[in-house]
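Hypothesis: this fold can be encoded by more than one sequence.
Test: take the structure tokens below, design a sequence, compare later.
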């Protein structure tokens, strides 16, 4: 039998080292956390009966070398010593009546390892022996001793002796409790290891039985599609025998579930307010919408309003666009001014409102809502989002700005996003309809009506250029991405 210790930064790496070194038939004898990682003791050609016999032999030898020291009962101890005063002095001097020795601390090394733990029984909590009152005869002898201590001193000394007796028992109980906690911790760690191993076996079996599904997941991952959405799509295409038809069908499913809003803002006009986080391109998008409307209806039909009073020189960019497009630009400090400005632009067919950019966690969002809410004015909010935003942050943005009840979303900066899959996944899962997309800084050329088919095709084309579909992903790669 070959036994070896392995050290690694995590349990998975340690298990792999055991498998490479001792083979698939190796037996895990123990595992525990150490500084810098974990330690695993494993054996090959494990003989359980041999270990059992060896442990019994070692235990017998230790018992013969260290015979158990029996603690004398309290009444014998009192009989041998003539008084409480003698008891106190002999404790200090170490005479025959010395304090019974503390029980030997158990060697914790014998509990380490799987093979040694087979000998462990749960220790029974020890209770201190009840203190018995001395017999009358002994009391009479103590009274005959000269220089009798005062009753208060004698009582204090006896109580002190009684209080000291349970100390060794309490310490041993504490050590046993800690040992039990350590054992439960090791069992928990072993359970996690076994679950991980079983999960790996199940994943590999599924990969062999349905390779098309694994390859489809691979491609959806490269597109940047979120895990939950990828798993749902792949789970509905288990009947396909080849990857290309399955991948084409997956794209069709994504096109069908990506909500698109057939917006009429640029055809008939209205009052629209663009809301969203800082830096997503709200002001530039307003300029693009205004320019597109001007090309169709003329500059006299458009007016711009900003409510951004938080940033220094926040109005400069919008004023610049206003001069270029030859449209009026006004600033509204509060809800009343906004209403007055809208009433003053009653002859305009399109009024675009630029708002202050705020984080989805900003408490001032409620102030913006109060500014834009008017019962007799139909202000249509549009949520502006950047395609370069990560999936989790995109979900938070959509959820936070739902308080504005946006009519649709506008996805900006498609040209800056490494992959559009994260934004597409968030829009699908949060059911946010998409009205426009932008893919550059040119006004108004880089503004387009949203098309689900074009977005999915662009996303798939980007993954084709950057990914190697022939690469085989290891189980650890799938675990790292949360798929296994």
């Amino acid at each position: 039998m070959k036994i070896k210790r392995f050290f690694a930064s995590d349990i998975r790496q340690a298990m792999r080292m055991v498998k490479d070194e001792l083979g698939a038939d190796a037996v895990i004898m123990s595992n525990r956390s150490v500084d810098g990682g974990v330690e695993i003791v494993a054996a090959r050609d494990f003989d359980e009966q041999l270990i059992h016999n060896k442990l019994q032999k070692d235990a017998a030898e230790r018992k013969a070398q260290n015979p158990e020291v029996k603690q004398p009962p309290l009444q014998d101890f009192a009989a041998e010593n003539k008084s409480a005063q003698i008891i106190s002095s002999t404790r200090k001097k170490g005479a025959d009546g010395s304090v019974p020795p503390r029980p030997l601390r158990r060697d914790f090394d014998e509990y380490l390892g799987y093979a040694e733990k087979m000998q462990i029984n749960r220790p029974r909590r020890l209770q201190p022996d009840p203190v018995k009152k001395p017999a009358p005869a002994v009391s009479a002898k103590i009274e005959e001793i000269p220089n009798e201590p005062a009753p208060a001193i004698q009582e204090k000394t006896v109580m002190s002796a009684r209080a000291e007796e349970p100390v060794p028992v309490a310490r041993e109980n504490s050590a046993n409790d800690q040992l039990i906690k350590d054992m439960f911790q090791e069992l928990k760690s072993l359970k996690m290891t076994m679950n991980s191993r079983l999960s790996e076996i199940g994943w590999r079996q599924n990969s062999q039985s349905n390779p098309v599904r694994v390859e489809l997941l691979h491609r959806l991952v490269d597109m940047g599609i979120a895990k939950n959405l990828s798993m749902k799509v792949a789970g509905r295409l288990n009947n396909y025998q080849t990857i290309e038809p399955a991948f084409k069908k997956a794209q069709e499913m994504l096109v069908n579930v990506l909500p698109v809003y057939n917006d009429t803002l640029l055809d008939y006009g209205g009052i629209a307010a663009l809301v969203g986080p800082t830096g997503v391109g709200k002001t530039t998008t307003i300029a693009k919408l205004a320019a597109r409307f001007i090309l169709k209806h003329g500059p006299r039909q458009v007016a711009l309003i900003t409510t951004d009073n938080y940033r220094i020189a926040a109005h400069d960019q919008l004023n610049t666009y206003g001069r270029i497009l030859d449209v009026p630009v006004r600033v509204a400090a509060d809800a009343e001014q906004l209403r007055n400005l809208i009433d003053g632009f009653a002859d305009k067919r399109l009024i675009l409102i630029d708002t202050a950019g705020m984080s989805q966690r900003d408490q001032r969002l409620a102030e913006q809502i109060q500014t834009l809410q008017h019962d007799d004015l139909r202000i249509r909010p549009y949520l502006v989002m950047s395609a370069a935003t990560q999936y989790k942050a995109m979900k938070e943005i959509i959820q936070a700005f739902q308080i504005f009840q946006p009519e649709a979303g506008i996805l900006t900066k498609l040209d800056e996003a490494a992959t559009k899959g994260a934004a597409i996944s968030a829009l699908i899962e949060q059911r946010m309809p998409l009205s426009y997309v932008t893919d550059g800084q040119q006004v108004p050329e880089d503004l387009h009506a949203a098309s689900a088919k074009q977005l999915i095709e662009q996303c798939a084309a980007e993954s084709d250029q950057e990914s190697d579909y022939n690469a085989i992903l290891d189980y650890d790669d799938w675990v790292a991405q949360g798929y296994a």
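The longest strand covers residues 27-34. The chain has 20 helices and eleven strands.
Hypothesis status: open.
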